[in-house]
Amino acid sequence: MTRPAVRPSHLPRLSRRAVLASALATPLLGPARAQGRVRVAVVGGGWGGLSAARHILKAIDGAEVTLIEPNRAFFSCPLSIHYIVGDRRAESLTFPFDGLIREGVRHVAERAQAIDRAARVVVTETQRIPYDFLVLSPGIEYMEEAIPGFAEAKGAIPVGFRAFEQEAVRRALEAHPGGDIVLSVPPVPYRCPIAPYERAALIAQWMDRRGMPGKVILLDLNPAIPIGGPTIQAAFRELYPTRLEHHLGVKITRVDAHAKRIETDKGVLAYGTASLIPPMRAGSIIRQAGLGERWANVTFPNFLSAADDRIYVIGDAVGSTLPKSGHLAYETGVHVADHIADRVAGRTGQDGDGLPSAICFAFFTSEEAMGVKIESRWNDLTREIERRAEIDPRKNRNAAQAAREWSESIWAELVG
Predict the structure, then answer these.
(1) In whole angstroms, how far apart are CA 377 and each of 201, 358, 374, 385, 389?
(2) What is the DSSP secondary structure assignment for residue 264, as one 8-state letter?
(3) pLDDT class of 353 with cuts at 50, 70, 90
(4) All residues at 6 or more sequence positions from 272 whose CB lies less than 8 Å from its CB, including other chains
(5) Angle 75-80-84 from CA coordinates, rounded to 5°
(6) How far apart are CA 110 and CA 113, in angstroms?
(7) What is the pLDDT of residues 153-172, one digit of tens each?
(8) Residues 6 or more apart whose Cβ sits within 8 Å of residue 101
(9) Are 275 and 159 in contact (CB under 8 A)?
(10) Would you give the distance in Å from CA 2 to the centre of its chain?
(11) What would the pLDDT profile of 3-52 be if each residue is shown by its tens digit?
């Protein structure tokens, strides 16, 4: 599906970045490979992986770009809550890879099982895919063991924070037998910091519309809302004073899906429907390849693996204080594509301090939202990421419209 590339005025311009020196401390491609086609493998077909694949193809003439992703389409997790509560169709969030393939990206519809770093090969179920550069964007996996009883109950307590999982949450909501709906916020860091609060609000609205008895109970494993707390709390109080309960600093100690009970350090809850979000970590291929433990270790500002200068890691798998957001993953794909192009061309210079920005939206009703924009830079002296946040002080209709325009623009950039 082709969509117009409309860029909302508040989005940052994606300029070429001067990020060169540290990567060029090691030899570039050998003469034979430099004169032939540069092979770039990209693992993961989400916001970061698709952005990297598309922009590498544009940035390097004749590049051989291979996307390794078992799904044959992209599904947008941002805005997917509207599908869960019945306000959008799944088709409006799902985009096949046809456009990328027509442009020249080779799609291997298999899961990357391992990285052979010595041979520079990605291993799938049936292939060994060689690379000169590798971009890993494997996303997150759930730490199911962190919540006792969750692994046994997960079929009855869907999470829905990875692509294509939202269908199970929607079905659970449609089958809601009555009573309270219990949701949770995992401990930071986790994917899309404001998304669990958006989910609670729109499910509360879903209950209101149907006149259902019961409440949405949001168990927050954090001592405070990670970002935008005053705006979120004000929206909860104004819109859902008796429908939504938000409890901070709660620890879930056990889940019993058969009895429909959740035990916490502050008491026991019975529920009609539950959707809990376990703590998160990088996809398992990061650990298999020796690139980090819970999260990938990377160097800034270029996102090179700290263990391998031919591997870049982008998106939610990166261990840093950068927010784990779709937009940041998208911008990082552009950032890394430029860096690889500069290495291939043999350009040298000083690393810049600019880092990709993050733009996020959270809806509190179907027509009102808040926007968050975080700009970051790398301070080479302190070796730290410095962040500056712009947060809407209250929910508003303009943010909801901006979210729709933003999504249409980025989807067009990702899949054509």
Answers:
(1) 32, 12, 10, 6, 12
(2) E
(3) confident
(4) 176, 177, 178, 179, 180, 181, 214, 260
(5) 120
(6) 9
(7) 988 999 999 999 999 999 99
(8) 107
(9) yes
(10) 23
(11) 333 333 343 333 333 333 333 434 455 433 444 589 999 999 999 999 99
- CA atoms of 386 and 44, how far apart (whole Å): 28
pLDDT at res. 351: 62
Query: 406 CB contacts (<8 Å, ≥6 apart)?
Result: 8, 11, 327, 359, 361
Share of the chain above pLDDT 90, in %: 88
200 touches 232 (CB < 8 A): no
Show me where the domains of the chain are located: 23-139+283-352, 145-275
Residue 172's SS3 state is: helix
- For 145-275, CATH number? 3.50.50.60
Question: Residues 241, 245, 247, 253: what is their CA dihedral angle, to the nearest 10 degrees?
Answer: 180
Predicted confidence at residue 192, as pLDDT, reads 95
CA-to-CA distance for 60 and 338, rounded, in angstroms?
9
Query: Do the domains 145-275 and 23-139+283-352 match in fold?
Result: yes
- Distance separating alpha carbons of residues 309 and 186, to the nearest angstrom: 32
Alpha carbons 387 and 336: distance in angstroms, whole number:
20
User: Beta-carbon neighbour count of residue 50 at 10 Å?
Assistant: 29
Give the end-to-end CA distance of the chain in Å, rounded to a whole number: 7
Q: What is the pTM of this model?
A: 0.91
- The model's pLDDT over 197-249, given as tens digits with 9 standing for 90+, comes to 999 999 999 999 999 999 999 999 999 999 999 999 999 999 999 999 999 99
Does the domain made of 23-139+283-352 have the CATH classification 3.50.50.60? yes
pLDDT in tens, 141-155: 999 999 999 999 988
φ/ψ of residue 378, rounded to 5: -100, 125
Taking a C-beta distance cutoff of 8 angstroms, is the pair 250, 264 a contact?
Answer: yes
Q: What is the mean pLDDT of the chain?
A: 91
Average pLDDT of 109-133? 98
The β-bridge partners of 354 are 377
